């Protein structure tokens, strides 16, 4: 099962909101992600598959998925859906933009920040340090933190923990690997540390997540 990273869906880290129109002519394999998804059927028919079971879809059907859930589509017959994707923190960002005196929107991602994000995503098992990451993108650690804060809204290490949690969630669903092994594969070699980090992202322990969302 593929785990969709937030960075694949939200090209602009200033506001984690995206949408697309999909014409599904074949089955869509089950996948998971750490953001909200709202799918509205505008044409055709199909079957939506998730941890909640199978639901037949027809025009005007609506599917709402919260962060951490997996889903897919089968028996698609001209199925057309309009998807909206919302990051888990989008409501806070939107309300902040509407409140007088609230902080301004985050700046566009600096090229070095984009480079750093791709480096982290490409090798989650690496025991990354802030100093190591700064050296790879030719920036002082303190300056890299400030750039990340302006364009991503979090520190580089917080971003790393988030994408590690997302990848761990996918492995928990798509494999039968022990929780400790999953943690080590994403760079969390201490099982208790892995559980704390995972819970801080999804509100569930790795074992609870697997029990709740695995097909």
TrEMBL record:
Q: Which UniProt keywords apply?
A: DNA-binding, Transcription, Transcription regulation
- The UniProt record lists the HTH araC/xylS-type domain at 114-212
One GO MF term on file is: DNA-binding transcription factor activity
Spell out the SUPFAM superfamilies in the cross-references: Homeodomain-like, Regulatory protein AraC
The residues forming a coiled coil are none
Q: Which Pfam families match?
A: AraC_binding, HTH_18
List the PANTHER family. HTH-TYPE TRANSCRIPTIONAL ACTIVATOR RHAS-RELATED, TRANSCRIPTIONAL REGULATORY PROTEIN
For this entry, the protein name equals: AraC-like DNA-binding protein
What is the scientific name of the source organism? Answer: Kribbella rubisoli
